[in-house]
Amino acid sequence: MRKLAKSYHAPADWKFHAQMVLLSWVGKTPNEIAAELGCHPQTVRIHLKRFTLEGVAGLGMRPGSGRKPRLTERERSRILAFVKQAPPGHLETQADGTMVARDEEGSAQWTLNALAQAAKEAGTQVKRRKTPAHLSARRGALASHP
Question: Is 94 in a helix, a strand, or coil?
Answer without folding.
Answer: coil
